Amino acid sequence: MTVNFQYVNTDVSETLSAITTEKLEKLVKKNEFLISAQVYFKHDDKDYNAGKICKIELSLPGPRIFATSNEKNYEMAVNKTISDLEKQLNKRKETYKTF
Prior knowledge:
The chain is α+β, with helices and mostly antiparallel strands. The protein has one domain (2-98): Ribosome hibernation promotion factor-like (Double Stranded RNA Binding Domain), CATH 3.30.160. 42% of the residues lie in helices and 30% in strands. The chain is built from two helices and four strands; from the N terminus they run E-H-E-E-E-H. It has helices at residues 14-30, 74-98; strands at 2-8, 36-43, 52-59, 65-71. It starts with a strand and ends with a helix.
């Protein structure tokens, strides 16, 4: 699976990219039909309580799956976003099983 990272209003972090790639690889092991992922990390200066935004868009057969989260730090945002994507992928698997 191809993973593309974009950092908006924040510095590029190899560690954050590695953590995210590792978590996405776990999704690929469970869902072999994933093609690629677009990962966006953004810092929102206006949000003082959170402001660390992670958006992930997965490309797979059928409509794309998208999730986003806004947390206190990027690792929490990645975990929340991956969790949301897992739920969506499980629903997608159920629809594939019915056909």
